[in-house]
Amino acid sequence: MTSPTASLNWRVREGAVDNLGQVRFGGSTIEYQVRRSERRRKTVQVTVDATGVQVAAPLDTPDCEVQSIVRKRAAWILRQARPGTPTQGPKRFVSGETLPYLGRNVRLVVEEAEGQAPEFRFDHWRFRVSAPVGLTEDERRLRILTALVGWYRSMAVPRLSASVRNWWPRLGKGDEPRILIRDQRRRWGSCAPDGTLRFNWRVVMLEPSLLEYVVVHELAHLSVNNHSQDFWSLVASAMPDAEQRRHRLTEAGKTLPF
Predict the structure, then answer these.
(1) Whole-angstrom Cα distance, residue 175 to residue 92?
(2) Dmax over Cα atoms in the chain, in whole Å?
(3) What angle do CA 225, 157, 200 make, to 5 degrees?
(4) If phi over 0 gives left and psi between -120 and 50 gives alpha, with beta otherwise, what is residue 178?
(5) What does each C-alpha distance from 170 to 156, 167, 215 come to in angstroms?
(6) What angle do CA 137, 138, 142 make, to 5 degrees?
(7) Are 13 and 149 in contact (CB under 8 A)?
(8) Separation CA 18–CA 37 (nearest Å)
(9) What is the sign of the dihedral through the CA atoms of 37, 38, 39 and 44?
(10) Is 78 helix (H, G, I), strand (E, B) or coil?
(11) E strand spans, the chain
(12) Which of 108, 239, 242, 252 is the most exposed place for a label (fewest CB within 10 A)?
């Protein structure tokens, strides 16, 4: 099999956010992200997690119908929101906000400029975005979010490839794995039966030691495809402080945006 770098497949993420919305309920404002998908045929699903309120809907669901469903479930949404869960929705993407990269909070600088698409740059530990003029707030946020996710994914490719190559001598088995960068909502990574490793692009928001733990965890699954004691023993033999990193990863995941 070719090397991890050569076999990388940077796919456009499925179910991208296509609009933002909000409803008022009593004294609270609930903002939510809508993800439409051709795969979802009928039902509209509302979930609340550490990233906020998410709505998964069929491709042709009108905004007014989504808003009505969120309003009907508002009481339930507020009950589900744990202390610290951001019911006020995602980042506004305005100057002065911060976004995580490699475990550090990086300040965002947003400027208006001519052009059809935002330009996103990482410059001396600043995120600099040139946003097209004349957009509504929701349009601006969505376009900046799309550009931002694209940048994070591009950073995930070389970092994860290098980490896999680094740990391969200790945990590798068979041919070197194919690596895919995905938008996984509920996991940091996965290992398929054919040895393909899939990683969540959000790992580059984490400090490098936690990214390394995610890689070690998935590489260990090449030998033990479960979470038995044999698996955890293998992880610990390669990374003695894996248990501490695992707990830090859990806590870090609660604080990440989108």
Answers:
(1) 44
(2) 58
(3) 50
(4) beta
(5) 22, 6, 12
(6) 120
(7) yes
(8) 10
(9) positive
(10) helix
(11) 9-10, 17-25, 28-37, 45-49, 52-58, 98-101, 104-113, 119-122, 126-132, 179-182, 189-191, 197-200
(12) 252
* Cβ neighbours, 10 Å, residue 171: 21
CA–CA distance, 3 with 175 (Å, rounded to integer): 9
| The one-letter amino acid at 149 | V
Closest residue by Cα to residue 218 from 4, 12, 16, 13:
4
100-137 burial: b if 16+ Cβ within 10 Å, else e: bbbeeebebbbeeeeeeebebeeeeeebbbbbbeeeee
Residues ≥6 apart with Cβ < 8 Å to 73: 46
Cα–Cα distance for residue pair 48/82, rounded to 1 Å: 9
Which residue do the tokens 């004691």 mark? 229
Structure tokens at 167: 């740990």
If DSSP states are collapsed to H, E and C, what string results for 206-234? CCHHHHHHHHHHHHHCCCCCCCCHHHHHH
In the chain, the amino acid numbered 136 is: T
Residues with Cβ within 8 Å of residue 80, at least 6 apart in sequence: 48
For residue 161, the surrounding DSSP H or E stretch is helix 137-171
In the block, tokens 């692009």 appear at 201
Query: Packing angle between helix 208-220 and helix 137-171, nearest 10 degrees?
Result: 60
Q: What's the CA gap between 54 and 34, in Å, rounded?
A: 6
